[in-house]
Amino acid sequence: MAQAITAIHRIYSVPHVIITSVQLSKLSQSGGTPTPPENFLTVIGSTTKSDGSPRLFRIDVPALDCFFSGTGDMFAALTVARLREAVSAAGDNLQSTASWVSPDSVSATDLPLAQATVKVLSSMHSVLERTMEARNAELAKAVLEPARNEGLTAEEQQKQEYLRQTKAAEVRLVRNARFLRDPIVQFQVLEWNKEDLPADLQ
Predict the structure, then answer these.
(1) 3-state secondary structure 149-162
(2) Could you tell me if 52 and 10 are in contact, meaning their C-beta atoms sit under 8 angstroms apart?
(3) For 182-200, what is the HEC assignment?
(4) What gap in Å lies between CA 82 and CA 134, rounded to an integer?
(5) Residues 49-78 as b or e (16 or more Cβ within 10 Å = b)
(6) Cβ contact 185:122 at 8 Å
(7) What's the chain's average pLDDT?
(8) Fewer C-beta neighbours within 10 Å, C or N terminus of the chain?
(9) With 0-12 CB in 10 A as exposed, 13-18 as middle and 19+ as buried, what is 146?
(10) DSSP secondary-structure letter at 94?
(11) How much is the average pLDDT of 143-156?
(12) For residues 92 and 68, is the Cβ–Cβ distance under 8 A?
């Protein structure tokens, strides 16, 4: 992943990169950075330095045992807004800098991209936790109701059940908008230690 991010920076001149939903516990690791537990997902990001090398950071978040539709779109939209906010807060005329790339002296954990991402993940986690609670309540209620799919074939019943579960898991965005406006920051940004990188990326 570090090599891929570096290639995206150097070859394609993409200044900011984020990789979401990585399970580091399934990868063999050595070095100074602890591996998160199995029930965690990791987001890895980087803003390039002037020489094209990465400034890698990671944020570990608890995985929620539920399928959600539209989380990628929500992550992208929130990141655009939060990155602009973080760039503005950084000062140093960063808003007038090409692609909002911070000076090389800025550490990975202090990057506007890192600060934006931790807020985005905090917002999303709060919204998705509440979505999952509402989903579970809705599915439990449906179990108590009389069967509505009598007379349907097994295939039709399976389709109805899939649609019911999908609808129940629709992200409750509007009713939890307060967590988008004012996220409760729950997670920590960690620098990806040099010991964890291949020698050519250190």
Answers:
(1) CCCCCHHHHHHHHH
(2) yes
(3) CCCCCCCEEECCHHHCCHH
(4) 27
(5) beeebbbbbbbbbeebeeebeebeebbeeb
(6) yes
(7) 86
(8) C
(9) exposed
(10) G
(11) 69
(12) no
The single-letter code of the amino acid at 101 is: V
Phi and psi angles of residue 197, each rounded to the nearest 5 degrees, phi first: -100, 155
Cα–Cα distance for residue pair 167/165, rounded to 1 Å = 6
98-143, pLDDT tens digit by residue? 999 999 999 999 999 999 999 999 999 999 999 999 988 888 876 6
Amino acid of residue 31: G
Helix (H, G, I), strand (E, B) or coil at 56: strand
In the numeric block, which tokens belong to residue 52? 């094209």
User: b/e for 7-43, b at 16 or more Cβ within 10 A?
Assistant: ebbeeeeebbbbebebebeeeeeeeebebbeeeebbb
